[in-house]
Amino acid sequence: MARGPGVGPVFEEVLAAARAGAAWAFEVLYRDLAPAVTGYLRVHGALDPDDLASETFLDVFRGLGGFTGDEQGLRSWVFTIAHRRLVDDWRRRGRRPQLADDGDVAADSVGGDVEDDVLTRLGTESVHRLCAALPADQRSVVLLRVLADLTVEQVAEVMGRSVGSVKALQRRGLRRLREELAPAGTTPAGGTGPVRAPLSARPAMTGAR
């Protein structure tokens, strides 16, 4: 999975300084999180992702004094704000994201190896292009997992969904991405057997048996 560099061991110091109003600390947090936030908004079709990201970070900095948690918790909180801003943007423009049915959580039984394989192979350079074709809710889950590096539980909190729903959306989205990532000549399940042409494309047989 693609991971940002993060602030690291000095996070507590940076967070305390940002709460106290230090401009340099705001800049550190912004540089760490802004690329992923902007990318998330851009792939979701925000009319002006840079402007929406700026609004997100204004909300972040206004509310930073009330935040408590570690660096991963901060990422989750920031993306919660970004997701709300995105939903507001959809509403202003009269757009509604395409939502998948959550009722078939048990029906999707793709194993964890498939998910780990896709998440490992996805990088921030290709994730934008690949995820653009996914339904909006699947795209949100995959981007929050890959770009924001959030856990399934944190993604559920950001999106206001159940953990089971998020897992199902992740399985469906990653299954589709895995098919896109599979090289020519491989089977969707990852095998290396030959791909057979459909019946309509095979030459007609001559003569009776």
Radius of gyration: 21 Å
Order of helices and strands: HHHHHHHHH
Total beta strand runs: 0
Helix content class: 55-70%
Structural class: mainly alpha
> For the report, how would you describe the main beta sheet?
none
Strand content: under 5%
* Number of distinct helices: 9
Judging from the principal axes of the Cα atoms, what is the shape? globular
In terms of per-residue confidence, which ranges show pLDDT below 50 for 5 or more consecutive residues?
97-114, 184-209
First-to-last CA distance: 55 Å
Mean pLDDT over the full residue set: 75
Describe the overall structure.
- With 209 residues, the chain is mainly alpha-helical.
- The chain has nine helices and no strands.
- It has helices at 11-19, 23-43, 49-63, 71-92, 112-121, 124-131, 136-146, 152-159, 163-181.
- α3 packs across α4 (71-92), α7 crosses α9 and α8 crosses α9 (163-181).
- The longest helix is centred in the middle third of the chain and has 22 residues, at 71-92.
- The N and C termini lie far apart (55 Å).
- The relative contact order is 0.12.
Annotate the secondary structure layout:
Layout: H1 11-19, H2 23-43, H3 49-63, H4 71-92, H5 112-121, H6 124-131, H7 136-146, H8 152-159, H9 163-181
Helix pairs in contact: 1-2, 2-3, 3-4, 4-8, 5-9, 7-9, 8-9
